[in-house]
Amino acid sequence: SALFEKELGSAPADSPEELTMIARRWMRRHYITADMGISGANFIVAYGDATGWKLARVTPAGLVLDATGVVVQIPAGRIHMAASGSGVLIAWITSDGFVYARRFAPDLTALDGGPINVAGTAGTRVAVTTAHFDGEFVVAWSQPLGPMIVTNSRR
């Protein structure tokens, strides 16, 4: 409470509920006046460990909508994610060089029965990225080709 009084100029408060509301009001005021923000949309957070990945939606006010996370059944390792109002796309490279992607609805329901093989065949792929462009998701990956690296993509 003393920290909030000093740093935020709030009235004295002791209960966790009061402190939470003070913090939310302060964050919301700064969010609304920020130079950049995503109005009316949730943020998607991906987090994982040795067992795999989970997704969670977080509101602009900081409220976590999926407290236990939504298991996305993607192997552990590096992923790249793009999100839009129409959903989420996650892409990754397997240890044998396949590029896969998986689509999710805005409520994080899986849209496909399983991963989509994007690159077709195994290979030496060094990076993958995703983007949402002109109403479609795009997956791009790089692979060494002699002395240069070639970037490929698929919509």
What is the beta-strand fraction?
A: 35-45%
Estimate the mean pLDDT confidence: 77
Q: Tell me the number of strands.
A: 10
Shape: elongated
Structural class label: alpha+beta
Residue windows where pLDDT falls under 50 for at least 5 positions:
34-39
Query: Major beta sheet, specifics?
Result: 4 strands, antiparallel
Strand arrangement in the largest pleated sheet: 4-5-6-7
Instruction: Tell me the radius of gyration.
Output: 20 Å
Q: From N to C, what is the helix and strand string?
A: HHEEEEEEEEEE
Kindly state the percentage of residues in helix.
Answer: 10-25%
Note the total helix count.
Answer: 2
The N- and C-terminal alpha carbons lie at a distance of 51 Å
- The multimeric state of the shown protein is single chain
Keywords:
155 residues, three-stranded antiparallel β-sheet, alpha+beta, four-stranded antiparallel β-sheet
Question: How would you describe the overall organization of this protein?
Answer:
The structure is a single chain. The chain is of the alpha+beta class. Helix content is 15%, strand content 39%. The protein has two helices and ten strands, in the order ααββββββββββ. The chain has helices spanning 2-8, 16-32; strands at 43-49, 52-58, 70-71, 80-84, 87-93, 99-104, 116-117, 127-133, 136-145, 148-154. The strands form three sheets. It has a four-stranded antiparallel β-sheet with strand order 4-5-6-7, with no helix packed on it. The chain has a three-stranded antiparallel β-sheet with strand order 1-2-3, with no helix packed on it. Strands 8-9-10 form a three-stranded antiparallel β-sheet, with no helix packed on it. The protein is elongated, with a radius of gyration of 20 Å. Mean pLDDT is 77; it is low at 34-39.
